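To: structure desk
From: M.T.
Subject: fold request, one chain
Message: Could you run this one when you get a chance? Sequence is below, nothing fancy, just the single chain.
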Amino acid sequence: MTSAPPEVGPRPGTWHLDPLHSSLIFVAHYLRYGRVQGTFGRAEGQVVVAENPAESSVEVTLEAGSINTGVGARDAHLRSADFLDVDHHPEIHFVSTGFEQSRRGRYAFRLYGDLTIHGTTVPVVLNAQWVGESPDYVSPEDTYGHFFSATTQISLSDFGVGLGSELPWGGTLVGENVDIVLEVRLQNQDPAPFLKQIGHAP
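Reply: Done. Structure tokens follow.
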């Protein structure tokens, strides 16, 4: 006799983005031929899991000024009005609009949503997958986490983000298309008190 597959994924309720154990990665072309990877270090978000998973919702906010490519001067330029203009557009925001099961794997799904960068909102689709679950390392008795991966690609011009100056050998300082790679941990406890305790809160 074949048993039914076990339930997977977060149970219904509110789950919180754990920024300490999540990687919000982007990969962009730089100087036409190079590829540069960066992250956003400050983010907060909630996922409300419904009894019917298709009715669940996701909302995430990133601090645009927390961009980090490992080079201070380059990061300052990316924060400037030439690119993200964080003084006028301090946040990057994502709100889900729907879910759909994917054929890419047993636990794969498509996450539809509206992404706002540089004050402009554009619909995006993320190819996502539930990866696994585990108790928290520091507080295993009261905190539990689920891990997800997701990818998508965006075009900077769709959001009104500049590409920088033209290069003498062709192309622009930054390429048009940017790959997004998300490795996310959701947990059942709000991480804000712990983040404040260790000095990570905004």
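Reply (cont.): Confidence is low (pLDDT under 50) at residues 1-6. Let me know if you need anything else for the meeting.
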